[in-house]
Design goal:
It is a single chain. This protein is mostly helical. The protein has one domain.
Length: 147
């Protein structure tokens, strides 16, 4: 929410710094700096990708952390440990985008909300697959024992 509350100039400058850093690590011979950033049109499209990937990482991690908290509650039916993080992430994404509409130079985007929800679904799906595999392995180990 902190980054969403920043004006477009501040947020754009942060994205530019991240993108220039990525380009300089991946292709050091490209000689991209913050000073010549504006002259490279391909970087502007890449900036959008960097922002969406950042959304996915943030909201995916948030969902995974929420899943781990809900999963720890033994009395809570397991399906809620998988459903609630997606619901809460969607609500937080909506609140985040609504907050951006109040900031100078920023706007809310339903596409960003859908990216947030997709990241949440992916994170929870990965958690489901990992716990399913763990349970299957645990069951196999228990049935292999001879008494």
């Amino acid at each position: 929410m902190h980054f969403s509350g920043e004006e477009a100039d501040i947020s754009g400058a942060r994205s530019a710094r991240v993108l220039v850093g990525i380009v300089n690590v991946v292709a050091p011979s490209a000689d991209v700096t913050l000073e010549n950033y504006e002259t490279v049109p391909a970087l502007h499209n890449s900036e959008k990708v960097v922002r969406k990937v950042a959304h996915m990482i943030e909201y995916g991690l948030l969902s995974f952390l929420m899943w781990s908290v809900f999963f720890a509650f033994r009395d809570l039916p397991r399906k809620y440990a998988y459903i609630l993080p997606v619901v809460f992430t969607a609500l937080l994404g909506i609140i985040d985008e609504k907050n951006q509409t109040t900031v100078t130079g920023r706007y809310g985007s339903w596409f960003d909300v859908s990216v947030d929800v997709a990241a949440s679904v992916i994170a929870v799906w990965i958690a489901y697959l990992l716990t399913k595999r763990y349970r299957q392995g645990k069951m196999c180990r228990n049935t292999d024992r001879t008494f």
